Amino acid sequence: MKFQHLGTAAAERIPGIFCKCDLCKYARKVGGKEIRTQSQALVDDAVLLDFPGDTYFHFIKEDFDLPSITQLFITHWHSDHFYGEDLAYRMDSYADDNPTHMDVYGSETVKGFYERAFFLEEHYDYSKLTYHALHPGDAVTVTAGNGKEYTVHAFEARHGHHFGDCLFYGLTDGRSSLLYAHDTAYFYDSTWKDMEEAGLKYDYVSLDCTHGLTAMNSDVHMNFADNLRVRDRMVGKGLADSDTIFVSNHFSHHGDASYEQMQAAAVKEGFISSYDGMVTEI
Ligand SMILES: [Zn+2]
Ligand SMILES: [Zn+2]
Ligand SMILES: [Zn+2]
């Protein structure tokens, strides 16, 4: 399985739009891996995880076949994960000569934002895409445009005051499995239980690291210390082992870490820090 991080930042990106902090100034000066766009990922060039406002930029920069993507999984409705207005341009009147049908999966709340995008266009052409509502604990098996089957498990994310409608995903093609845990704080006990019941052992785990190397503790996102706690508990429960690739991802400029600093800290603990465009064969 090929896995690619198209973008690796939290909402405001790095450098942050409108921000003048030292890390953002440094990122603008250095460029390269210090530049992080909104989080999005791609499995086997066929299954897309999240649809942020930066999707169009990712499409141009990485040159993946976005018009042919038929399976899209949304974690939640924050604009760095779901920008419905651009998804509405999949309608016939905007996209020509594209016979493919896209299935979009996400929570009931995301469905409201999805329908709002069509309302804003004053146009309700759902002939080229269908929304499927998922709930924590659900699993769905899909066939992607590459002909491969994937089973995707939805788990409840711990993301502030929202309950039951922020999801993260475990995905398997029957040979390799990955966990894409964004955006979430350290998982609820009920989520750990759902993960055990799903029965997957993960080869690749991407964890929310919005708070980076700070000591910040929140019920919205994780810092690197939380990532280590998740890793230890996953290994303890047999959800991962010493061969599992653990990746910290979804960074904020408030995380007190450049890419170089984050990667140095990550390597010491057997982790990897993501960067935009990073590809791993799992
Ligand atoms: Zn986010
Ligand atoms: Zn900044
Ligand atoms: Zn969020």
What do these coordinates show?
- The strands form 2 sheets. The protein has a 7-stranded mixed beta sheet with strand order 6-5-4-3-2-1-14. It has a 7-stranded mixed beta sheet with strand order 7-8-9-10-11-12-13.
- The longest helix has 14 residues, at 108-121.
- The chain is of the alpha/beta class and 282 residues long.
- Strand 2 (40-43) and strand 3 (47-49) form a beta hairpin.
- The protein has a single domain (5-281), classed as Ribonuclease Z/Hydroxyacylglutathione hydrolase-like (Metallo-beta-lactamase, Chain A), CATH 3.60.15.10.
- It has helices at residues 22-30, 55-62, 84-87, 108-121, 189-198, 224-236, 259-268; strands spanning 2-7, 40-43, 47-49, 71-73, 102-106, 129-133, 139-143, 149-156, 167-172, 177-181, 204-208, 245-249, 271-273, 279-281.
- The structure holds zinc ion (3 copies).
- Residues 76, 78, 159, 183 line the site of one zinc ion (ZN).
As laid out across the biggest beta sheet, the strand order is 6-5-4-3-2-1-14
Shape: globular
CATH classification, class level: Alpha Beta
Gap from first CA to last CA: 5 Å
Ligand list: zinc ion
Low-pLDDT runs: none
Oligomeric composition of the shown chains: single chain
Helical coverage, percent range:
10-25%
Q: Which fold does the CATH topology refer to?
A: Metallo-beta-lactamase, Chain A
The CATH level-2 architecture is identified as: 4-Layer Sandwich
**Number of continuous helical runs:** 7
Number of domains: 1
Decide which structural class fits the backbone: alpha/beta
Instruction: Report mean pLDDT, rounded to a whole number.
Output: 97
Total DSSP E strands:
14
Portion in beta strands: 15-25%
